[in-house]
Design goal:
By secondary structure, the chain is an alpha/beta fold. The chain contains six helices and eleven strands. It has one domain: 3-Layer(aba) Sandwich (Rossmann fold). Strands 1, 2, 3, 4, 5, 6, 7, 8, 9, 10 and 11 form an eleven-stranded mixed beta sheet that branches. β7, α3 and β8 form a beta-alpha-beta unit.
Length: 301
């Protein structure tokens, strides 16, 4: 039997966060405090391979941060989004972006991957990419287990039937591999956000609502990577092109028009496909089409 071990649960500091850059849609009625829970999750069923001077370990440790609106209640469970960061990233590198999702009524779980993070033993490396999809499924296993466990800090807060998946750069490759390849496919995810992505998979076999967002000046992952995914994916599918955005610009929740498009279209997308808000489709089309900033293509059934 696979044994999953949670070795630490620590309440982190609570920070007051305003709406910031999401200017393209109406602001939230009030500022919402974002609360973080830090988890050390250890998967004893899979090893971490050697990496440079690092000899490897027989298990995999995933430092994971779960962010939620302070005051979240089991009386009204919230959708969960599992977020995969890019190479050199940690669980909170994109918090300024995904905290907007949290303030819009989502819980976000973001792990630091064992070898692709900035502090990876032996140096930052993509050598472990093939294991990262299973890392995300393991994180979901553990977060949902804590959701069912009394006194965990997450008890009853998550709606296990409304789970989204999101990834940026190498994290986008990770989520593409997770959902669209038979060996790693996890059908618990109901909506997929791909930021500056590239990848291959069996898109016909595994339909899922998908939103791709990419800058047309990306110097690391060409925008053609997202074009190819959009072409192959089954509807409903949406593709936002951010004019002039590089690989890193517009994806950190800053107070500028391009960042606002990225933030707000993600919220619209998850509102539509996780919360079932039909009016969010019109918002998505509006917020993804901003003169001289971005344009959206959509194919819906």
């Amino acid at each position: 039997m696979v044994r999953h071990t949670v070795t630490a649960i620590v309440l982190a500091s609570v920070t007051l966060l305003g709406l910031g850059g999401a200017a393209v849609s109406a602001p939230l009625a009030k500022e919402i405090v974002v609360k973080r829970i830090e988890l050390t999750l250890v998967d004893e069923s899979r090893p971490t391979p050697a990496n440079g001077t690092f000899a490897g370990t027989p298990d995999r440790t995933l430092e994971t941060v779960v962010s939620m609106p302070k005051g979240a209640s089991k009386k009204k469970p919230l959708p969960l989004i599992v977020f995969a960061t890019g190479i050199g990233g940690t669980a909170t590198n994109y918090a300024d972006m995904y905290d907007h999702w949290v303030r819009a009524g989502y819980i976000v779980a973001a792990p630091t991957f064992p070898l692709s993070s900035e502090d990876a033993p032996g140096g930052t490396s993509a050598v472990d990419l093939t294991e990262q999809p299973a890392d995300l499924s393991f994180v979901l296993d553990e977060v949902l287990r804590l959701n069912d466990e009394k006194g965990s800090g997450l008890t009853g807060l998550i709606d296990a039937d409304r789970i989204g998946l999101a990834g940026k750069s190498l994290g986008a490759v990770t989520v593409i591999d997770l959902f669209f390849k038979a060996e790693s496919h996890d059908d618990r995810f109901k909506a997929l956000l791909v930021l500056t992505g590239i990848g291959r998979g069996d898109f016909a076999a595994y339909p899922i609502p998908i939103l791709l967002v990419h800058g047309d000046a990306d110097e690391i992952v060409p925008v053609s990577g997202s074009v190819d995914i959009y072409t192959a994916a089954q509807p409903p599918k949406h593709f936002v092109t951010v004019y002039g955005a590089s690989h890193s610009s517009a994806f950190h929740g800053e107070d500028d028009p391009a960042s606002s498009v990225v933030v707000q279209t993600a919220i619209d997308f998850f509102d539509l496909y996780l919360k079932g808000k039909k009016a969010a489709l019109a918002r998505l089309e509006r917020d993804g089409n901003v003169a001289d900033v971005a344009a959206i293509d959509s194919t819906t059934p």
